[in-house]
Amino acid sequence: MSWIYEITLQGPTGAGASLNDWFAGAPREALANLPGLVGLDTYLGDDGNAGDPYNNDGHGPSMIIVAEFASRAALVAAIDDIAAAVDPLPNNVSATGAAMERLYYPVAGGSEPAPLEAPLSYVVRYRRPAEDEEAFRANYIATHPVTQGELPHIRAIMCYLPLDDVRHSHFADANYLIGNEVVFDSIDHLNISMQSPVREELRRHYREFPAFSGSVTHFAMQRTRHAG
User: Fold this and answer.
1) Which domain holds residue 130?
2) Number of structural domains the chain divides into
3) pTM for the complete prediction?
4) What is the pLDDT of residues 156-174, one digit of tens each?
5) How far apart are CA 115 and CA 135, in angstroms?
6) What are the tens digits of pLDDT across the range 119-148?
7) In this structure, what CATH number is given to the domain that contains residue 205?
């Protein structure tokens, strides 16, 4: 496990390229030098079409920045510097923030959690409310990751649990209930997995989740590692 701070940036359609240029300046250097940082990634929308038969959520985030720390204490200590590193934001760009615990899981044939190495991520976020948040998260963790490990071409699986007591006033709260990320070498491999019987089993799990009424988003994104 690790602890992360996620900043989701939303700008006009096509803003990813200009945000890449912005991030390559002061923000990347400031974030990469944070004490206790073990990983720094950005995510941009993939140009290919995700072939999920159940979800097509349209225009996704312009960019997601994820700063990863080896301990909760290191994340908490860095929270003010994280906010300062991305201030000011570019014009016409808004941001939400979320501190989360990141849990890694094995993939088929493995007994140890698989590392985050492949570049194509299917980023899933469930938002509040739920009738019983703890029951929802417990059900999700008990059913989804072990089944996702059987997806064809799967390279890594992570779940994200919100840390509600770690927030910064600089960012609007993302209001997450739980997050999930499945990782592949390419959009083609993701799409093969989306047409598999395992995807149907995951949909069956979804229908049996404890009651919730928040929104759910699914976006295929290309990840770039900047530090760690």
Assistant:
1) 2-227
2) 1
3) 0.97
4) 999 999 999 999 999 999 9
5) 27
6) 999 999 999 999 999 999 999 999 999 999
7) 3.30.70.100
